[in-house]
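B., you asked whether I could sanity-check this one before it goes into the benchmark set. Here's the sequence:
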Amino acid sequence: MRLIVSLLIAMFLKKIVLANALVNENCEKLDSEIRITKDEYSETGKLFRTCSDEIQVSKCEGYCDSQVQPSIVTSTGFTKECSCCREEFLEERTVYLNNCYDSNGKQFSLLDNSNMAIKIREPTNCKCIKCGFL
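And here's what the prediction gave me:
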């Protein structure tokens, strides 16, 4: 009986290894365009201006290999290790929002208020990392 169970587990593990060998990781940094809108308030709390623009940013996208293995320790009989495509490092970058409007919706024409500099953080490199809370 033990021999049969051992053979079944070995066959199951071989199927998992073969299935994982067919899946390739494809985690990469891609460019994307997003719209950013930012409000600026005066010291008294009144809306001074709203700025927005389409900004080119980087993001991590793709898929990563995950593994399932039999386990006699867990209640389900299996352990699963998941990998997610995530940023390895984040880098801060200054971007400019060039469409600025006052609280009445009138576009600013003065150079001082016609754009707003904001800082964003985006990935410098992407890789497959063990899934979980960061």
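One thing to flag: The chain has one domain: 1-130. Otherwise nothing jumped out at me.
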